[in-house]
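BUG: 3D viewer hangs when loading the predicted structure for this chain

Environment: internal workstation, default settings.
Expected: structure renders.
Actual: progress bar stalls at 90%.

Input used:
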Amino acid sequence: MAVPEDAGAEWLDGNPHQAGLASRAGPASPASGEAKPDPAAAEVVNPNSHPAASPPTSTATGEVRPAQPALRADLPGKRGGEPFFYGGQAVIEGVMMRGKSHYAVAVRLPTTKEIVVDRGELKAPIYTHPIWKAPFVRGLALIGEQLHLGMKSLIWSANMNAGSNNIEIGKKEITGSVAMAGVFALVLFIGLPLFLAGLAVHRSGSFAFVLVEGVIRVGLVLGYLAAISLLPDVRRVFQYHGAEHKTINAFESGWALDVPSVRRASTLHPRCGTGFLLVVLVVSVIVFSIVALFHPNLFWLVASRVLAIPLIAGTGFELIRFMARHRYHPIVKIALLPVLGTQKFTTREPADDMLEVAICAFNSAREGEEATAGAAA
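Structure tokens produced before the viewer hung:
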């Protein structure tokens, strides 16, 4: 799979109420591969470069610049005539935001408390080819995006945090950790529910077996999320997750993208991946109930749980997409309650400095979108 083209990292001061310092590239960091700041070449910039309210002022010249139009979900950010909605995810001490054709990752370094931003353009076929935008297929694209852009952003954030402490994380360590996590997830969320359901219901080809298996799987997922939320480092990731949601909610509401305004927004969002996970679990019960009608043996019982992932993911994505677009319909509002409720497990109220990181990531992604729109005009 082609890798999106990366842009260089830039450094911003984390003060939400003042302009920050951005340094031009200096010597390369061996841990992250990114450029370190050169204090002698510093220039003053405004991290909140896209407020939706008053026109921004350049602190370097005192000049008042015209306010740039917000890329609202129902305005310019459209793909193929359909509105495009921004998305993102929490990373280690930061947030990744994804636009239509650009992404940005903003991370606050633990030593200097500065914000480092990495931007890139989404050029891989999974982001650009029309086949990946087709109904049900786009659910697979979402999984591919998480494996590609999500992991890439997470690894970059880990390297930035480790590099600031003069620690280098090699590819072997990263590959090993990802492989172990994958095996752990398969055993815990696929193998264990099958085993426990087999102990409770001896007829594997029955609806009761599928229902018990589904209930156990939901319980394991929610229990796992509740348990890891007790870890301080994971709790901080969940706070950044809340900051990501607040920023997108504020933008879609047309509010100013500054800390006081974003603070007012909700930490819950109907397009959240946690809610998508719940929908996937519900869809899996329906799909596996159909499989049970064929009374599969143990091999096909296990294989069906893996082979059905594309179908389940595609259906789940279409359902979550439909509910997000019709969130104010009375019936959909009721259906969204458990979807939003599960996000209580993976979001926490963020601190103001976390909100600023999310805003920086969002504005950086928008800058790429605006540059592309300006070039096409």
